[in-house]
Every structure is written in C-alpha cells, then in structure tokens.
From TrEMBL:
Homodimer. NCBIfam families: PRK14186.1 (NF010783). Residues 199-346 form the Tetrahydrofolate dehydrogenase/cyclohydrolase NAD(P)-binding domain. It comes from Eutrema salsugineum. The keyword NADP applies. One of its GO terms (biological process) is photorespiration. Catalyzes the oxidation of 5,10-methylenetetrahydrofolate to 5,10-methenyltetrahydrofolate and then the hydrolysis of 5,10-methenyltetrahydrofolate to 10-formyltetrahydrofolate. Belongs to the tetrahydrofolate dehydrogenase/cyclohydrolase family. It catalyses: (6R)-5,10-methenyltetrahydrofolate + H2O = (6R)-10-formyltetrahydrofolate + H(+); (6R)-5,10-methylene-5,6,7,8-tetrahydrofolate + NADP(+) = (6R)-5,10-methenyltetrahydrofolate + NADPH. One of its GO terms (molecular function) is methenyltetrahydrofolate cyclohydrolase activity. The keyword Lipid metabolism does not apply. This is Uncharacterized protein.
Length: 351
C-alpha cells in the first residue's frame, strides 16, 4: 500500500542509451537531464557518467556498480587461479535454497553464474517449501563438515514456519560468507573486534565509496532502513569508517529533514522512489540499495526495477548516485565471491 504512494517519481523524462564496453559488453546507462560526460572509472577499466544538469551547478557521477563488480570479479579470477596453481585448492560456495520463490531462484542462479565466471566451485541444494527446520539444519551441518566448502549461504527469506535465527546460528562462523552469524555481526558492532565476514550488500556499498575515492571520515551519513541484512550493518560499517551516522526507520518523524543534512545517504527501505530530490542536500552522495519491481507494460518482464530514490530528481541535486539496476546489486554478488575467496585463503592459510 505504502509503496504505491511512491511509485511515481517525477514528471521529468528519462531517456536511455546503450554504450558499448570492449571488456564487459553493453552497459545500459540512464541519462538524466542536461549534458553528459564520460570518464573512465578509478580502476581505468569501466566508465563513469557525469551529468551536468541545467538545474544543478555540479555534475552527478553515476556510480557504476556493474562495472566495478566486473573489475572485482577479474581480480578474484586471478587470485582463484593463483591459489589453485599454488596449493591445488578451488574455493567452494554452498547455497541452500528452500522453497520455490521465483525471485530467490533468480538470485541463486545469478550467484551460481558469478561463481562459474571466476572459477569458484558452487554447490546448490534445493529443499522443498514444506521441508522441516531439521532438514535445513542437516544440510547446513553437512556443509560445515565438508572441507571442499569454504562458504555457506542460506538464501533468505526462509519459509515462515522456520526459525531463521536458529538456522543462521548453525552456520560455522568460519564459513559464514553472508556475515549474518550473530558472532560476526556482534564483532562488527564492537570497537577493537574484527568480524570474520562482513555482510555482502553493506560491504559492497562501502567498497563502491572507496573505489570512487569518496571520503567517508568525518562525513554525516544517513542510513534509511535498519534491517539485519542491510541497514543495520551498513550503519555499523559507516561508523567504523569514522562517519557520523544517523539511522532512519519506519517510525522516524520528518525523515526528509534528517536526510537533507547528509553528505552520504545509503537507502535500504524497499519503497520505490520514496527519497525525493527535495530530501537531498546539494552535492550529497547517494547509494541506493532498494530493488523494487514496479509494473511496466512496456518492459519485457511486465515490470521494471527502481530504487528507493527518485533517480531523475536525485541526479539533479546529488554529486554522485548509484543506478538501479546496475548499482549495489552486482556489488553484493561480487562481495559474496570475495568473501568466499577470503574464507578459502584463511582456511588453507594461503596469503
Ligand atoms: N541491492 C542488493 O543487493 C540488495 C537489495 N535489497 C533491497 O533493499 C531494500 C531493503 O531490503 P531489506 O533491508 O531486506 O528490507 P526490510 O524490509 O527487512 O527492511 C526495510 C527497512 O526499511 C524501513 N522502512 C520501511 N518503510 C519505511 C519508511 N516509509 N520510511 C523509513 N523507513 C522505512 C523499515 O523500518 P522498520 O525497521 O521500522 O520496520 C526497515 O528497517 C529492498 O528493496 C530489497 O529488495 C536487499 C538486499 C540486497
Ligand atoms: N542469504 C542471503 N544473502 C543475500 O545477499 C540475499 C538474500 N539472502 N536474499 C535476497 C537478497 C537480495 N540480494 C540481491 C543480490 C543481487 C541483486 C542484483 O544483482 N540485482 C541486479 C538486478 C537483477 C535483476 O535484473 O533482476 C541489479 O541491481 O543490477 C539483487 C539483490 C541478495 N540478497
């Protein structure tokens, strides 16, 4: 219901253009309003798109998660083969999928493809919707004991008759590549402690900020959303990077007043186009985690994906913004591969 309120963003039109990249194929870029400028990304391997808007004196950089994720996958590929050649070990990721949610099946398929692309071995277990919690725990326990598995991911959400906490607690912390085990989250929250793994989506957000050389230290950051998998760990990570962090949630009064003070906004709400241009301080950096399907009879699938942030409005005010799709989503998967590689290296004491 609430999501319907935000489905429409602005009356400004969005045009699209396809740019060809020799290394990563075609990238779909959205043009906002005004003049476009293309630069190579800090890695030198991708593109960054700048938009000089008629209503904004400063250009907004398009923070290209898809291109950065490709760079990271290339780096991981090199490391995976170096490890295999040196000690004959191939990192392995086990994914447990319970039930037949279409979106979860798609995510799992994408993770599998990404593993293949870098040389990580992926093992998938599918359990029926009516499996018992015991069945899932058995599967987790089997992977905990399997030396060819270095990472275990239990795809969320689980069917409602299962206790998610029980299941996440059962994953060995040494193989918790999602970073959802309470010990890993607890360490993330404590000064002077180091988690073995950091949750992939928030880690991907910070990695994007780093790769674009955006300073975090001393900045005012606002995280919208406080879920265990995105909002809360994103706030903890920003704090560890010496930002001053405020969290907005569904009971926050006047969220727009708070976001307007932010130098960095990370939005993980699940409400299409909730964050309007007027919520944003000129020059702010926006990381839009939201992935929200909205009906679109012209789209091949009958819907398209939009973020939590009204992209067309935001890119006339912000200095940088992630698109949806092509922003944080691909980074989440890249961080999962990175965590799996780290895990295999740690288990086999390989530097
Ligand atoms: N790009 C990626 O890789 C990923 C994207 N996502 C996407 O990110 C979004 C969030 O996911 P997730 O964290 O799992 O979602 P949850 O539903 O678990 O959490 C949503 C959070 O947003 C808050 N919220 C809801 N409505 C409002 C509102 N009107 N104003 C302020 N805060 C609000 C909730 O507050 P309260 O706590 O008070 O209920 C809650 O903390 C979704 O669109 C999801 O698809 C998720 C994971 C990965
Ligand atoms: N244990 C667990 N770990 C997760 O990390 C986890 C999970 N459960 N459950 C669901 C959410 C969601 N999530 C996404 C990952 C990639 C994209 C992604 O790559 N999105 C593409 C678009 C994909 C499309 O077009 O459908 C993009 O944004 O460009 C999106 C969402 C991980 N999650």
């Amino acid at each position: 219901m609430a999501s319907m309120m935000f489905t429409d963003c602005s009356s400004s039109t969005t045009s699209r253009l396809i740019l060809s990249n020799r290394r990563s194929g075609s990238i779909l870029l959205r043009q906002c309003v005004g003049q476009l400028r293309l630069r190579t990304t800090p890695s030198g391997r991708g593109f960054s798109l700048s938009i000089r808007s008629s209503s904004s004196p400063s250009p907004a950089t398009l923070v290209d998660g898809k291109a950065v994720a490709k760079t990271i996958r290339d780096e991981i590929t090199v490391e995976v083969s170096r490890m295999n050649e040196s000690i004959g070990v191939v990192p392995g990721l086990a994914v447990i999928l319970v039930g037949d949610r279409k979106d979860s099946a798609t995510y799992v398929r994408n993770k599998k493809k990404a593993c293949e692309s870098v040389g990580i071995k992926s093992i998938e277990v599918r359990l029926p919707e009516d499996s018992s919690e015991e069945d899932v725990l058995k599967s987790v326990s089997g992977f905990n004991d399997d030396p060819s598995v270095h990472g275990i991911l239990v795809q969320l959400p689980l069917p409602s008759h299962m206790d998610e906490q029980n299941i996440l607690n059962a994953v060995s912390i040494e193989k918790d590549v999602d970073g959802f085990h309470p010990l890993n989250i607890g360490r993330l929250a404590m000064r002077g402690r180091e988690p073995l793994f950091v949750p992939c989506t928030p880690k991907g957000c910070i990695e994007l900020l780093h790769r674009y050389n955006f300073e975090i230290k001393g900045k005012r950051a606002v995280v919208i959303g406080r879920s265990n998998i995105v909002g809360m760990p994103a706030a903890l990570l920003l704090q560890r990077e010496d930002a001053t962090v405020t969290i907005i949630h569904s009971r926050t009064k006047n969220p727009e007043e708070i976001t307007r003070q932010a130098d960095i906004i990370i939005s993980a709400v699940g409400q299409p186009n909730m964050v309007r241009g007027s919520w944003i301080k000129p020059g702010a950096i926006i990381i839009d985690v939201g992935i929200n399907p909205v009906d679109d009879p012209n789209a091949p699938r009958g819907y398209r994906l939009v973020g939590d942030v009204c992209y067309e409005e935001a890119c006339t005010v912000a200095s940088a913004i992630t698109p949806v799709p092509g922003g944080v989503g691909p980074m989440t998967i890249a961080m999962l591969l990175s965590n799996t590689l780290t895990s295999a290296k740690r288990i086999h004491n390989f530097q």
